[in-house]
Amino acid sequence: MKVHGLLLDRHAGGVERRHDGRIAVDKRNGRWCSDGFEIGCDNGERVRVAFALDCCDREAMSFLATTSGVSGEDVRDLMLAAVEHRFGPVNRLPVTIEWLSDNGSCYLAGETRSFARDIGLEPRTTPIESPQSNGMAEAFVRTIKRDYVRVSPCPDADTVMHQLSAWITQYNEVHPHKALGYRSPREFIAAHGNS
Question: What is the pTM of this model?
Fold first, then answer.
């Protein structure tokens, strides 16, 4: 039935316009993307990480780590941390910024979407079963797993959570990106001013 287009569309929770087209943008603070991933520890514990990136400069503006599931409340905290990182303690963003995520329940929660709009973020979702639609976030996950997790000791959740901040700082300050002229996110930001 799927091959012949006979399946009903899945309900993705919300009527907001879906993201389509190019993920990267030419101007900072125009689109942010978010996703999550899991890190398995040697002792069987799992660390779940969620993060927010700017789709222009690729800076990881905020992240969280937990040994439980990532909740809507966690995503709201993540959003607020990203806003405060870029704009300081404000009640609402000076410009509307797209917030691109997948269709995870923590992102689709009504309270999360409402909170996003209240602070000036415009929630956008990727098509279901289409991870390439949030390719920048997926590339970040691959980089963290390949260049940091794989080469670091991960005996337990406490060790991973302690190292995570250093990994993300290293990513932001040193990790080169082809799309940024082989500069790190912070080098790119410094070269282009804070505009």
Answer: 0.85
> 185 Cβ partners below 8 Å, 6+ apart?
54, 57, 58, 59, 60, 171, 172, 173, 175, 177
| Closest of 24, 14, 23 to residue 133, by C-alpha | 23
The answer to whether 41 and 154 are in contact (CB under 8 A) is yes
Burial class (CB in 10 A: 0-12, 13-18, 19+), 138: middle
- Rounded Cα distance between 136 and 35, Å, is 10
How do residues 39-58 score in pLDDT, each as one tens digit? Answer: 999 999 999 999 999 999 99
Give the three-class secondary structure for 63. Answer: strand
Query: Structural domain boundaries of the chain?
Result: 31-191
Helix (H) or strand (E) holding 164: helix 157-173
* Beta bridge partner(s), residue 99: 32, 123
| Residues counted in the chain | 195
pLDDT tens digit sequence for 133-163 = 678 899 999 999 999 999 999 999 999 999 9
- Burial readout 139-160 (b: 16 or more C-beta within 10 A, e: otherwise): ebbebbeeebbeeeebebbebb
Which bin fits 53, alpha (ψ -120 to 50), beta or left (φ > 0)?
beta
CA atoms within 13 A on the CB side of 187: 14
- CATH class of the domain at 31-191: alpha beta
